[in-house]
């Protein structure tokens, strides 16, 4: 009877398929490779059957997948190098979301029409690239373009392929400013390999190839893809752990132009604080602005991040009018955990905790202000309330041996704020304090709770919206143009990462992954670089300004253009905008020449000629796809703007009617009110007159001047307009 009972128990134990995350740095030296180590580890926990690894992973995740019983899984947790497990749940094929969020899909629209950016080259100026990442494999990518003149400066040229077609290093500025580096460590500064991670992440956002089963420890799981997955990548390493120097950045842009890139993506920039001149950083002293003008003269589209110093006005950088300046927004995705009390009441909380935590009921105890003293609370979930010394209080609660900590707090924390805490902790809003406290104190001897992590929630609202850190305009050095131009996904974006660079953990036990979640306008800019490559593939003769116009006039409109520009990038109509605001390099110069006294030095630098020669046709107007007007105490008269639209629609004869929305409190007159195009590439102009009969009731008033196609009511060409009384502080 006893024997049959044990036999029944043994045969009844269920098995499941698990993905096991391992710390490769813990691999003992005797093992020749990771697979043999994984196999031996698996063999040691399985006794009644032949162990079999389903997959051994080294890039998308570090570890392996195998079929295990629960008891075998528990034994595996005690093995050296074990990090966590993920149950292998059924999934459907979908992107890690940001390309989908801006309107891209494989079935129809911009991706298939543009052949995923095939044949275009995106130059990334950053910290280098991890060439072995699966995001840079070249399956499906076409041949290297015949125009390409780049080089592969890895120790082995085999590290480049049809996806990664160029990799160069720029370090002379680094050595000049840090002479001690040249003698002792020159070898490590000669490779384009990314030792920081930023460049790898940015490059894969712009043009990473498809990678299945990508995730950050099972958060954001799906198929990773860049915006232009069949575009080529050229990396220019000009950013180092010891610093970034303008001389190296200029040299990188210069080389990228010569190599033959179509798009340059910059997720770096200078701020006014870097300039010793009390007048601030003028464009003439901004190497990115100067070098980027040379790029657009050669037809290269330049996109740059606007900075992470929001939410303050006048905080934006990289705002030269010939650069596409990008802010950052949210994408309607949250990473969560769930606390479920023994009475069934549950609470969601932000979390990116990478480890595994048993989804079982634990005893719960409430400790006011986390003052645990010398108590031992092993295998108990500690609940406490604290708003001030969160870090130290959590450590105090953890020191009791608690299984996990639930911290109720007034502080508004995001998922990224939770990364630094490398043990199970749930940050719960103080609005739930009484419900949690009441349950735990009224059930002192039998209160329980369950914690679950690694939840990805899609479709959270409001989204998209500009995130708080994204820098706001106006641009200090050139306030005559509305900036930023656009926002794009920038918050917690999953992308490729060097697998030797820790993404979390501690110095003693770092956690490694082939993908990471990062936040910033650095992540937003390469999204737009990818969109530009898609447009360039379909319209190879379009100028950088034409591409910028297509992106801006088809954007999803949002509130406050000084934060979002034209709105959030959308690819739904970007290949067929109908009308564009085109601008030549000479048009920029003519606009600068209108204020030649203030722009004398910049004009000399970018035209390489004297003022009298360069400024033969000064103009008070720049044909930009947005408008900003200042109504201040010394500028309160009417403001007039002229714009010119070019018909790029497939139908030659087309008529558009104007519509004005928003701009409350202003008198707005647009003439003419109808534009009738009779042929493709025809140009027609209109004027906008803005008048404020009294002082602006708000610092920023905004709206749209839109042109609607008479034959297609859904076809709208939008121009964001801002009226403001903001004055730059001296």
From TrEMBL:
One of its GO terms (molecular function) is serine-type endopeptidase activity. It is found in: Secreted. Residues 17-94 form the Inhibitor I9 domain. Keywords: Glycoprotein, Hydrolase, Protease, Serine protease, Signal. The active site is at 126 (charge relay system), 198 (charge relay system), 522 (charge relay system). InterPro entries: PA_domain (IPR003137), Peptidase_S8/S53_dom (IPR000209), Peptidase_S8/S53_dom_sf (IPR036852), Peptidase_S8_Asp-AS (IPR023827), Peptidase_S8_Ser-AS (IPR023828), Peptidase_S8_subtilisin-rel (IPR015500), Peptidases_S8_3 (IPR034197), S8pro/Inhibitor_I9 (IPR010259). SUPFAM superfamilies: Subtilisin-like (SSF52743). Belongs to the peptidase S8 family. GO terms for cellular component: extracellular region. Transmembrane segments: none annotated. Pfam families: fn3_6 (PF17766), Inhibitor_I9 (PF05922), PA (PF02225), Peptidase_S8 (PF00082). The keyword Hydrolase applies. This is Subtilisin-like protease. It comes from the Eukaryota. Residues 117-556 form the Peptidase S8/S53 domain.
């Amino acid at each position: 009877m006893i024997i049959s009972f044990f036999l029944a128990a043994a045969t009844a134990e269920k098995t499941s398929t698990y993905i096991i995350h391992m710390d490769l740095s813990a691999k003992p030296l005797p093992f020749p490779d990771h697979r043999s180590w994984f196999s031996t580890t698996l063999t040691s926990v399985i006794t009644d059957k032949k162990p079999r690894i389903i997959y051994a992973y080294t890039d998308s995740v570090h570890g392996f997948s195998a079929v295990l019983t629960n008891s075998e899984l528990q034994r595996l947790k005690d093995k050296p190098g074990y990090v966590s497990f993920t149950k292998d749940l059924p999934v459907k094929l979908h992107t890690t979301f940001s390309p989908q969020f801006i309107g891209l899909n494989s079935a129809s629209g911009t991706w298939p029409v543009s052949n995923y950016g095939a044949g275009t080259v995106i130059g990334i100026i950053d910290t280098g690239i991890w060439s072995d990442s699966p995001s840079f494999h070249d399956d499906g990518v076409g041949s290297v373009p015949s125009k390409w003149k780049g080089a592969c400066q890895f120790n082995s040229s085999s590290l480049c392929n049809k996806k990664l077609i160029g990799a160069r290093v720029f370090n002379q500025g680094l050595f000049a400013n840090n002479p001690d580096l040249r003698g002792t460590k020159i070898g490590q500064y000669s490779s384009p390999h990314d030792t920081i991670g930023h460049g790898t992440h940015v490059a894969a956002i712009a043009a990473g190839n498809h990678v299945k089963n990508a995730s950050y420890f099972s958060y954001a799981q799906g198929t990773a893809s860049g915006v232009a997955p069949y575009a080529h990548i050229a990396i220019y390493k000009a950013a180092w752990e010891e610093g970034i120097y303008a001389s190296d950045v200029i040299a990188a842009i210069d080389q990228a132009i010569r190599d033959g890139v179509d798009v340059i993506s910059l997720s770096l920039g200078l701020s006014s604080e870097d300039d010793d001149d009390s007048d601030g950083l003028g464009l003439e002293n901004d190497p990115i602005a100067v070098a980027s003008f040379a790029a657009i003269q050669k037809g290269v589209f330049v996109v740059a991040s606007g900075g992470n110093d929001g939410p303050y006005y006048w905080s934006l950088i990289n705002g030269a009018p010939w650069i596409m300046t990008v802010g950052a927004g949210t994408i309607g995705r949250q990473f969560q955990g769930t606390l479920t009390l023994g009475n069934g009441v549950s609470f969601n909380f932000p979390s990116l905790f990478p480890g595994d935590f048993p989804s079982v009921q634990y005893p719960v105890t409430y400790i006011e202000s986390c003052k645990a003293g010398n108590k031992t609370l092993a295998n108990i979930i500690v609940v406490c309330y604290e708003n001030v010394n969160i870090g130290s209080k959590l450590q105090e609660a953890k020191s009791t041996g608690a299984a996990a900590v639930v911290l109720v707090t007034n502080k508004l924390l995001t998922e990224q704020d939770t990364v630094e805490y490398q043990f199970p902790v749930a940050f719960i809003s103080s609005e739930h304090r009484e419900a949690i406290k009441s349950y735990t104190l009224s059930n002192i001897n039998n209160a329980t709770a369950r914690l679950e992590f690694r939840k990805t929630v899609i479709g959270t609202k409001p989204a998209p919206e500009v995130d708080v850190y994204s820098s706001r305009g106006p641009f200090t050095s050139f306030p005559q143009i509305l900036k930023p131009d656009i926002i794009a996904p920038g918050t917690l974006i999953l992308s490729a990462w060097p697998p030797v660079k820790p993404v979390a953990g501690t110095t003693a036990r770092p956690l490694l992954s082939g993908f990471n979640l990062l936040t910033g306008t650095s992540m937003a800019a390469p999204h737009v670089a990818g969109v530009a490559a898609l447009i360039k593939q379909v319209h190879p003769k379009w100028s950088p300004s034409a591409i910028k116009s297509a992106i801006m006039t088809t954007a999803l409109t949002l509130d406050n253009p000084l934060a979002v520009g034209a709105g959030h990038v959308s690819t739904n109509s970007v290949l067929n905008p109908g009308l564009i605001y085109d601008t030549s390099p000479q048009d920029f110069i003519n606009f600068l020449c209108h204020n030649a006294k203030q722009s004398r030095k910049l004009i000399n630098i970018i035209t390489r000629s004297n003022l009298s020669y360069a400024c033969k046709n000064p103009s008070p107007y720049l044909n930009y796809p947005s408008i900003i007007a200042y109504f201040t105490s010394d500028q309160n008269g009417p403001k007039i703007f002229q714009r010119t639209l070019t018909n790029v629609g497939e139908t030659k004869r087309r008529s558009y009617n104007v519509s004005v929305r928003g701009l409350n409190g202003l008198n707005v007159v647009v003439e003419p009110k109808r534009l009738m195009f009779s042929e493709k590439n025809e140009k027609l102009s209109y004027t906008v007159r803005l008048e404020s009969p009294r002082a602006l009731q708000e610092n920023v008033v905004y709206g749209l001047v839109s042109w609607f196609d008479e034959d297609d009511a859904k076809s709208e060409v939008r121009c964001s307009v801002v009226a403001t009384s903001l004055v730059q502080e001296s």
